Amino acid sequence: MDLAAKQGPQDLELIAFFDLETVRTGEQEWEIVEFGAILVCPRTLVQVGEPYSTLIRPSRKDIVDNFSDRPNGITRQAIANAPSFTEVAGDIYGILHGRVWAGHNIEEFDCGLIKEAYAESKRKAPWYKFLIDTHPLLRQWFGKRAGDLKLATLGDYFGHGEQKHRSLDDVSRNLKVLKDAAAVLFLESNFPNLLPENTWIAPKSISESCISATHAPFKDGSQKICILHENLPLQVHCMGMKVLYGIDKKLNEPWLSFAVVVPPKLYDVLNVCDAHALRRFGELGINSEWKPVVKEDYNRYIHLSLNDETKIWRDGHPTMERVEHTELGDDELKMLFDQEETYVDAFFSLDTFINYNKMAGITLVAKKLFIHPRLPARAI
């Protein structure tokens, strides 16, 4: 199939992955020197038809004359002999118009250049059905584990080899990165203990004699106490905990938290953690009032805190809607936890603190929450 040919309604369902190579012509000015695209089936992420790419001659002769040859094959002679944007504008329009557009950092960069190029050529610009920019998408879901999230860095992370900075090569790399990241996130969501550095331990598997605490320098130069289990940072997953009361934001504290009834085994584990951390704080000469992690009332309960990295699954299944709490309004967030008989499967870390009131203790920071409107059968 010729990508630039006129397509029917079924073909418009295909995703247009594209990339531009550019030359800088001013402080905030760029011109396109190459366009490349492939069409992809949204159901299978398989390429459909042949790819399309073309070098493009810049609009001004001085840009061509001052162009420095690149080792990837984009040379002064090559772009001097290339068609102008006006000559290929119809082909590019046929590929992009009415489709879903996808690419890396295209919202901030490529889309604007395409719009400008069509305006300068006095042609109608293509429009997209909606946009998939993989840069903010990966920043939200994949985090900073792959560094700066540039396409070259992501390719190195997944072992795709050196980036060539040619449009079609970058498009292919982008699609491979997206598939690989999706596979990793799928495995992590379904098998949270898959990676050693992400080991989450159920309370029943925690040996209290293997719990310890150690001093560690914090990012601001102060000392931090790390809670360990078998010499690794202790990260806990506990299933089917009943929500005692929902979202609470305390005065002068930036984080949100909610309370859950603490199961007996977790109660014992957290008391041991408290004792180790308190002793280490004492060795540092810190005499702040200690705030026990378990609250004693008519129920024994703990607070689970939410931060910017907390991910929430509604209805307790990874394939259901996943959100960050920062995406929800106060009312929406409260509704998640205020239903009668709400239970959570929680994956949380143990962070020590000293606050402005000279109080110290352990904060349980929720990393992942699976919310159930009733007690899951597997937790009974």
Structure description:
This protein has 380 residues and is an alpha+beta fold. It has two domains: 11-190, 2-Layer Sandwich (Nucleotidyltransferase, domain 5), CATH 3.30.420.10; 196-379, OB fold (Dihydrolipoamide Acetyltransferase, E2P). The chain is 27% helix and 33% strand. The protein contains nine helices and 16 strands. The chain has helices at 61-65, 76-80, 85-96, 106-120, 134-141, 151-157, 167-190, 264-283, 330-337, and strands spanning 15-26, 29-40, 47-55, 100-103, 131-133, 211-217, 223-229, 232-233, 235-249, 256-261, 289-291, 295-296, 300-313, 322-324, 343-354, 359-372. A five-stranded mixed beta sheet has the order 3-2-1-4-5, sandwiched between helices. Strands 9-10-13-16-15 form a five-stranded mixed β-barrel. A hairpin with an 8-residue loop joins strand 13 and strand 14. The longest helix has 24 residues, at 167-190. The termini are far apart.
Task: List its traits.
disordered C terminus; elongated; 380 residues; alpha+beta; Nucleotidyltransferase, domain 5; OB fold (Dihydrolipoamide Acetyltransferase, E2P)
Q: Number of folding domains?
A: 2
- Tell me, what is the CATH class of the largest domain? Mainly Beta
Number of strands: 16
In whole angstroms, the N-to-C terminal distance is: 56 Å
In percent, how helical is the residue content? Answer: 25-40%
Enumerate the spans where pLDDT stays under 50 for 5 or more consecutive residues. 316-320, 376-380
Whole-number radius of gyration? Answer: 27 Å
**H/E element sequence:** EEEHHHEHEHHHEEEEEHEEEEHEE
CATH architecture of the largest domain: Beta Barrel
Instruction: Write down the overall geometry.
Output: elongated
Strand content: 25-35%
Judged by helices, strands and strand pairing, the structural class is alpha+beta
